[in-house]
Amino acid sequence: MSVSALGAPARAESPPSPVPAKRNRRKPPDLRRWISPLAIVVLWQLACATGLLPPDKLSSPWTVLRSGVDLARSGELGDAFVVSTTRVGIGFLIGAAVGLGLGVVAGLSRWGNHLVDPPVQMLRTLPFLGLIPLFILWFGIGEEPKIALVALGVAFPLYLNVHAGIRGVDSQLVEATTALGFTRAERLFHVVLPSALPSTLVGLRQSLGVAWLSLIVGEQVNASSGLGYLINNAREFLRTDVIVVGLVVYAALGLATDAIVRLVERRALRWRG
Amino acid sequence: MAGLTVAVRGLTKRFGERTVLRDLDLDIAPGEFVALLGRSGSGKSTLLKVLAGLDTDTTGSATVDGQVSVAFQQPRLLPWRRVWRNVVLGLHPVVGRDAALAALAEVRLVDHADAWPRTLSGGEAQRVSLARALVREPDLLLLDEPFGALDALTRLAMHRLVETLWQRHKPAVLLVTHDVDEALLLADRVLVLDDGRIGSEYVLTHPRPRELSDHIDIRARVLRDLGVTDRATA
After folding, report:
1. Does B93 touch chain A (CB under 8 A)?
2. Which member of B68, B161, B212 has the closest CB to residue A10?
């Protein structure tokens, strides 16, 4: 402390600054980034038109588009969409309930951590897609193995992130709120769970990614309906256009669920700016 | 022990083999401003935690008469609660925004009531933490090196602010610090913790607001108690 500061008038360290305005709305998209993707589509179309790319290897973008519209009109695509989305939905709900439940138990209680964490960590190292043969033996070839595969894929990322989020709670905040008279339950709801929310949402995004991946793999096995069936059936008839339509729908579904979680993140984590 | 805000008798605290507080006695009268100095590891913060009710694994007795509030070295605001909600954190919902705004006005931060904690500077966040402590109208205000993490200029401003708020509300204050000058500027009584008990005690009588030179004689003795012999200070 310097002596020259003696008797300095008491002052706030800075005039109250206005709360910083919300981050700038996202920049307008840079159109230059569209040049190369469009060029690729044009080249693809040209390659097909000139016969360089035969339709039994890859159909032209235009054909894919037309087949997509046809499939949508006939209701085939809609039915497949509903079947596949239902599989992911049920599998996700089961997997999320298990992953969240175990993560909370292992995160909050010492005994829970001792009992739950070791087996989960061991199972996690299994390449779970390799369990398909066992699942077929256990569940047959109906809906169950596909749903089970999705559920399994979903449970692990959620468990790991929820567990880490709860364990990572700032002990200083816990102590401060204890000094403020918080009960155990109040600390749980106002301190521990909110601080675990960011990593839980990260886990949710990973889980949804894995869910679609598990579905795609699961639907390669003996599906008689759904997007996987549409694609496999198209392979029998060398319909590469239908295969591409199926892939595009898979991709769109994955993007859509990711966008939903990102939206939730932006709403729920506003405090992080 | 009637009439005392803090009465500590024979307080002992061990961490395993190590005895941090040894048969310690301490009285603080209502409205008294006490500064507690000591080398790092001397048990200052441990004593504060006992008084805050955060550490009950002790022997001896420590009684506090009335409401206790703590402000820590770090502001410890919940980042997911807006500033004013942090101020009334844990209070009955009836004690709402108005109480928070009144407390924020005292630390000159009304404009930031709806801000997120992350948008505050270190000094501002620390003032919110003070407002949170004051809104409970404490009989005992525990300050655990609350200015330690602030820059020198902000610290000077905070000294004046704490002095003003103390004079207005008159809680008993226990200020744990390693800054001798800070203790001499603010306190009625300076205690030096040594080997787990109060090693020495100085009563400061100079009227406020004080300057650093007002207790220059005591300063030298306190520094000697702390084992600092040359002119270097914290």
Report:
1. no
2. B161
CA B51, chain centre distance (Å)? 11
Q: Which of B89, B120, B154 to mutate to test the interface with A (most CBs of A within 10 A)?
A: B89
Residue A153 CA to residue B197 CA, distance in Å, equals 58
| Burial category of A236 from C-beta neighbours within 10 Å (exposed 0-12, middle 13-18, buried 19 and up) | exposed
Interatomic CA distance for residues A246 and B216, integer angstroms: 84
Cα(A48)–Cα(A42) distance, integer angstroms: 10
**Nearest Cα residue in chain A from B144:** A176
pLDDT band, residue B231 (cuts 50/70/90):
low
Confidence of residue B148 (pLDDT cuts 50, 70, 90): confident
User: Looking at the predicted structure, is the pLDDT value of residue A126 above 60?
Assistant: yes
The structural domains of chain A, ordered by start, are 78-232 (1.10.3720.10)
pLDDT at A15: 42
Domains and CATH numbers, chain B: 6-67+138-225 (3.40.50.300)
**Integer Cα distance of A249 and A76 in angstroms:** 13
Contact yes or no for A6 and B80 at CB 8 A: no
Q: How far is CA A230 from CA A18, A164, A224, B14, in A?
A: 57, 40, 9, 71
